[in-house]
Amino acid sequence: MFDNQYFIKYLADRKVDLSKHLEISKFCRLEIDPKEFEDFVKVHRQDATVKSWHPRPFLSDMGNEQAINANWIGYNEGNTKESNWGINEIHNTILKGMVGNKNLKKLGIDPDKTLIRLLEYLPGHCLPLHCDGLEGFKKLHGEVDAVRFFVAVSDWDWGHVLQVHDNMISNWKSGDTYVIPPKIFHASANFGIAPKYTLTITGVKT
Amino acid sequence: MKLNHKIAEERLDPKNAVPKEILEQYPWHWDPMKQDHEDDSCFMHNIKDFDWKALGDWAIKKCNEHLTPQKYWWYDYDNDAVMHANDNVNSMPIKEQALLALKNNTHTKHNRQYFKIANKEFGEWYEPLKKMFPNLKEDKMGISLFVQPPGHTIWSHTDTYSSFIRRTGDSKADYTVLRRYMAFVRDWDFGHFFHYGNHCFNQWKAGDLWDLKPGIYHGSANAGINPKITIHWSGELL
């Protein structure tokens, strides 16, 4: 159960040091309508990509190593299930329309080189500590410098949290947006009683 | 993916599931968006004159002897029962809050486990731990330590002292005299979450002591790589 030596080594090899503070502040607030996204989920429930933490053939070596390390210490489909929408081109087009060009401009990214994913974490599920491989984005747009944003869809509710390095991000308002810097480890959880809806927006800066 | 149940169309309000006497005796704002709250005022102090590292190491060793979290919550759909491990807690005051999390929701035995060490199981640690709270009646006091493995949560709730009632055999809780204190056994780590009302803890230190006043909604999760350990003293005030 507590054989976390491999994950600890994985972090140590990457010189991840929690004692060193990383400044993360709110980037901006997007103008979005949470209900529009919640309705999208209702309509497109059957078309969701449902995933949990385990190695997959299309992940990068880094992504798979993180998944193996997470599985080894107890993460599985019972505690890491995520439904997401956006990899499907039609969904991505709809989501881009819902976010809108005005908001994408605010983020300073090229709408044609942007991937939006709507994530649903139901109560009891979490996103274990990891850093992003941006595999989905790279598959569409190649190896380019991209920026990853976290956007809160709904107003904050009890038990909805995100940690980015040593920063606790919570108590958000709908549309609050943070940058998740590359190679920075982060984790999130939903231990409340209501679903947690967030967006990840990945794009190339204009 | 088809869910086994419908997602609630309207926001579930956990306040409605809290025992009436707690709401009356301990009014709270019950607004997740409230910013001018004092939910962090329940921090008491850091207990320095105690070997928290030794207690944490001992607790992990003890869990590793059997590797089986003793406690988990689940809903028994066949018998319409809220279950805490093998105990049916339908008659306990936690029932309505547990239903919100477990019945037609996604907190399950697969994401709601913890190891528990309680009272005399503490061995030589028991007496010094008891002495820390002389304001609690010695014969009406319980101490429990939770080891929360990665991937597990304690759903948000207000304390109803259900385990304490079961242990003391009292028929009903008198919330006017019951109190719970909580200390973190290890420093904060990656993926360790705890919200007390609208205050989300960060970078806590081993020995940080909180007065978990009744009536304030709280919960925790571990999305990290190390176990999260907390210790709790529950009892009747002198």
Based on secondary structure, the structural category of chain B is alpha+beta
CATH class group of the domain at 41-66 and 114-237 in chain B? Mainly Beta
Assign a percent range to the helix content of chain B: 10-25%
Based on DSSP secondary structure assignment, what is the total number of beta strands of chain A?
Answer: 11
Mean pLDDT of chain A: 95
Q: State the end-to-end distance of chain A.
A: 46 Å
Short description:
Chain A has helices at 5-13, 34-44, 61-72, 89-99, 101-107, 135-141; strands at 26-29, 49-51, 82-85, 109-121, 126-130, 147-152, 160-164, 167-169, 176-180, 186-190, 196-205. Chain A is α+β, with helices and mostly antiparallel strands.
Helices and strands, with pairings:
The complex is a heterodimer of chains A (206) and B (238).
Chain A: H1 5-13, E1 26-29, H2 34-44, E2 49-51, H3 61-72, E3 82-85, H4 89-99, H5 101-107, E4 109-121, E5 126-130, H6 135-141, E6 147-152, E7 160-164, E8 167-169, E9 176-180, E10 186-190, E11 196-205
Antiparallel strand pairs in A: 1-9, 2-3, 3-4, 4-11, 5-10, 6-9, 6-11, 7-8, 7-10
Chain B: H1 20-25, E1 43-46, H2 52-66, E2 71-76, E3 81-84, E4 87-88, H3 95-102, E5 113-118, H4 126-131, E6 136-148, E7 152-157, H5 162-168, E8 178-184, E9 192-196, E10 199-200, E11 208-211, E12 218-222, E13 228-237
